[in-house]
Write a structure and sequence with these properties.
With about 240 residues, the chain is mainly α. The chain contains ten helices and no strands.
């Protein structure tokens, strides 16, 4: 367990730790406004670290059902008094709960403590927890995406590659739509339906900026996408030959 936490800490908080130990300006005695330093450190975790957690979640979940189909374990389990839908839901819940507790919550606490050690002034805990909840939703979507594809497809190229491209491409599009200043308005409007916005929304929320109307649309849309992915996986798995 400790080695697993260490690996995830390196992935999710590596840049935050580098900022903490190697940049002289990131100290409580710096002339830089502590609020700016706090914003930078939380941004590095929620945006860069959040993407790393999402990619790690995809790697963890992409073959969770596929490998059991290949080994014949799924067929053996289904031969018992266990429904196929229960099998899919159990895989989904086990992966998502583990990811939320061991990765998102644990890494969020580490970042919070690092900010406190750096500045002696951590973010508002309520706002920060709200930000972590939104980050958890972001990572849950990509975990659900990978696990669902694992039930739908028999190719690791599909179950791993498509969610990874969606996470990285979606993150790039989200940044361009929010800060690029040159994207067509129609693309910006459609982008609000993309879960890839959620780590940016999580960062803003952790800084005390409550989600606006468009951000609320993104949150609701992500919940809908997760429900659609789960239903698609259950329906397909009910019909697949094991």
């Amino acid at each position: 367990m400790l080695w697993l936490i260490a690996i995830w800490t390196a992935l999710a908080n590596g840049l935050v730790i580098i900022l903490w130990v190697s940049i002289p300006g990131l100290t409580a005695n710096s002339k830089t406004d502590p609020a700016i330093i706090q914003s930078v450190m939380t941004g590095v975790f929620f945006i860069a670290g959040g993407l790393a957690i999402a990619l790690g979640s995809i790697i963890r979940g992409h073959d969770s059902i596929l490998k059991e189909r290949e080994s014949g374990t799924a067929s053996w389990i289904i031969s018992k008094p266990v429904s196929r839908s229960s099998f899919v839901m159990a895989k989904m819940l086990a992966n998502c709960i583990g990811m939320l507790l061991i990765i998102v919550l644990a890494q969020g606490i580490i970042t919070y403590l690092l900010i406190d050690l750096t500045l002696g002034r951590p973010p508002d805990p309520v706002s920060y927890l709200h930000g972590l909840a939104i980050l958890g939703l972001y990572c849950t979507f990509f975990m659900a995406f990978a696990v669902s594809l694992s039930a739908l497809a028999m190719s690791r190229g599909v179950t791993l590659g498509i969610p990874m491209l969606a996470a990285m491409g979606g993150m790039l599009l989200a940044l361009l739509c929010r800060y690029g200043g040159f994207m067509p308005q129609s693309v910006i409007q459609l982008n609000f339906l993309s879960p890839a916005n959620l780590n940016i929304i999580a960062w803003n929320t952790a800084r005390g900026m409550l989600p606006s109307g468009p951000d609320q649309i993104t949150i609701v849309a992500t919940l809908a996408w997760i429900a659609i992915l789960i239903m698609a996986a259950v329906v397909k798995f009910e019909r697949v030959e094991l």
